[in-house]
Amino acid sequence: MVGVGAQFGAVRLLLTCDGPTARALTDACLREQGWRGKRRADGAVVYERGSLRRTLLLGALAGKRFHVRLVVHALSVKNRAAGAGSVVELRVGEHVGWALGGMLGIQHARVAAHEAVAALEREFSQRGVLAGAR
Fold first, then answer.
1. Of 99, 100, 88, 103, which is closest to residue 6 (Cα–Cα)?
2. Is 8 a domain residue?
3. Is the pLDDT of residue 1 over 50?
4. Can you give the pLDDT at residue 70?
5. For the whole model, what pTM was predicted?
């Protein structure tokens, strides 16, 4: 699994399938994990998990229902050596975790990011479309 470090930034999963297929697989996998998604005008999908209301009231004490936001871009790419493919990029803003729950909030955001990346890697690997990660 790709590590999600102290400065989360982004994780990129390289796939051998096209962009629309990557988007569909990503969406199905994350929804199965309990994420809710909304498409933005720029094509990215913002996935959320947990309860914002509960998190605002309880902060990090919201536990498993701590509100986390994950932004996913699925881009089609052309690689001369490998042919067509796609890149799925995941971003979690730790500043949101900090604002809503301090250090424990950041930890909740990291755990959620690890779980999402692991689920996607398993799904893509099982389907034979995972070419790499960075």
1. 103
2. no
3. no
4. 87
5. 0.82
